[in-house]
Amino acid sequence: MIRARSLIAVALLLSLVGCKVGPNYKRPALTVPDQYRSVAPDATTQPQTSAPGPEKPFGELKWFEVFQDQALDSLIREALTNNYDLRIAAARVEQARAIVGIRKADQLPQVSASGSIVNERSGFYPGAPTYDTIGIQASYIVDFWGQYRRATEAARANLVATEFGQNVVRTTLVTGVASSYFQLRQYDMQLEYSKKTLEADKGMLNLNTIKFKGGESPETDVYQAQLLVQQAEAQIISLEASIQQTENAISVLLGRNPGPIARGTNLVDQPHMPDVPPGLPSTLLTRRPDVQRAEQQLVAANANVGVAKAAFFPQFSLTGAFGAQSTSITSFLQGPATFWSAGGQVLQPIFQGGRIRSNYRLAWAQRDEAELAYKQSVQLAVNDVANNLVGYTQARKYRIKIAEQTQTYFDTAHLANVRFTGGATSFLEVLVTQQQYFDSELALAQAWNAELQNYVQLYRSLGGGWEQ
Known about the structure:
Elements: H1 2-17, H2 63-66, H3 70-82, H4 84-105, E1 110-119, E2 130-142, H5 147-213, H6 219-253, H7 284-287, H8 289-310, E3 315-326, E4 338-347, H9 355-421, H10 427-461
Antiparallel strand pairs: 1-2, 2-3, 3-4
Helix pairs in contact: 3-5, 4-5, 5-6, 5-8, 5-10, 6-10, 8-9, 9-10
């Protein structure tokens, strides 16, 4: 019993004086600009009063504050509940959480029990006695060098990284549904205009046919009017196909079979800020889940260096057993029927063909790679925001110019139609101006969609969309 107490005391002492070899994590130095390119200093911190949500940086708004179309909000909520990619990400989080439990268990003693019944027959035991044995065994590897604590540290960091990975999926899903929805509304807008144009073109074809039959205009006017009708009909066919394909793509994001998608606000009436307050580039370190995931992967790789380094040092293990043996169950705990043992062991690796040193070099190389990946993720995040800020600003200006151009084409086409009706020009002028106006209307719908697509991508790049 004295020996057992001595071993316990030794184990406690080793645990108290033990250390954790390997480097402790420290965030590497980063080069982050004070503001985004082409953004005024005050615009990085001062929110606009026209913002659809609370007065704070755009990336800190929750997705339902940014997208205020009730139909779109319903689609996003359904996607967040049923999307398979998000559910797979949740399962990965549970896997990582279980791995943390496994690594923590390595730090604790292992206890097992055994029992046996043996009937022994030999020349020495002619009566063939039966031996009943029960015992409890315990083993404990003292984590003197912090090998298991470092492994647990790495597992926890991987768990957090997996949770941030789930947020990456959530952000991608929210913005993906919004992006596809705006694309669908573009096709709806173009289809509505194409149908109106088709009806007007059919009326013009009917008028030209009557005038040709009455000898008031040449047959070419009829053919030219037919071109306008055919152009609108072809566009309608193409748009109807695009609408169904986009609805199918949204259905997949929602975790449902292909089917129709509910609509809400028109494309041109979607609420969005004219000027976006992006905040400071340094906030991306805590806002963007992909950047935070990269940092936690670096934390895990840094801890694994300690795991690899601990393999160079001796390993202290303690074992103990207690049990009883008897030929009768009633005498298990009586006198000499009980037995116990306790012992300790030190294992020092001497030669393993360079495996330990190679594992240590591998751990350092993986840590260096993770640090570079983290720094790269920060740089890419800043670049992503800068590109999307320019994209959204220019897309908005472009849409305004296309709207002006469309109005000019409308006025030109209307004047050409008046001139043709009054006999001052041929129908060819009507044909050309009407085609230009038709194409410009389709381009205007695309411009509205491009503006909203850049708006969505800017929100994603600023780290928005993952908070519920």
